[in-house]
Amino acid sequence: MKYSEIVHLSTDEIVAQIAEDKATLSKLKFAHAVSSIENPMRIQKARRTIARLQTELSKRKKETAAPASVTETATEAK
Predict the structure, then answer these.
(1) Has residue 38 got a pLDDT over 70?
(2) Least crowded by CB within 10 Å, which of 4, 25, 49, 62?
(3) What's the pLDDT at 20?
(4) Rounded distance between C-alpha atoms, residue 30 and residue 52, angstroms
(5) What is the pLDDT of residues 13-25, one digit of tens each?
């Protein structure tokens, strides 16, 4: 999943996608440990997709937390 696609998802969809991709990653790791999987690069792709999703999620959390801290700082300065 490209980052441009992730930006258009809602926060709830991102959280659901992270859970789904983590489950997929654990299944891929288990399958690879038992016997070699056909395309081991799928593990790397899954890890990167999870990282992209988590990056966007943390970015959104910081954006929602930033206005509150800016308001508190402006109030304290007065």
Answers:
(1) yes
(2) 4
(3) 97
(4) 23
(5) 999 999 999 999 9
Write the DSSP string, 4-24.
HHHHTS-HHHHHHHHHHHHHH
Sketch the domain layout of the chain as residue ranges: 3-77
Q: Report residue 55 CA to chain centroid gap.
A: 5
Q: CA nearest 58: which of 20, 11, 19?
A: 11
C-alpha Rg value of the chain to the nearest Å: 18
Q: Would you give the DSSP letter of residue 35?
A: S
Helices (H), the chain: 3-7, 11-34, 41-77
Domain 3-77: CATH architecture, name and number where available: Orthogonal Bundle (1.10)
**What is the token pair recorded at 13?**
């969809």
What are residue 34's phi and psi, to 5 degrees?
-75, -50
For the segment 50-60, what is each residue's pLDDT rounded down to a tens digit? 999 999 999 99
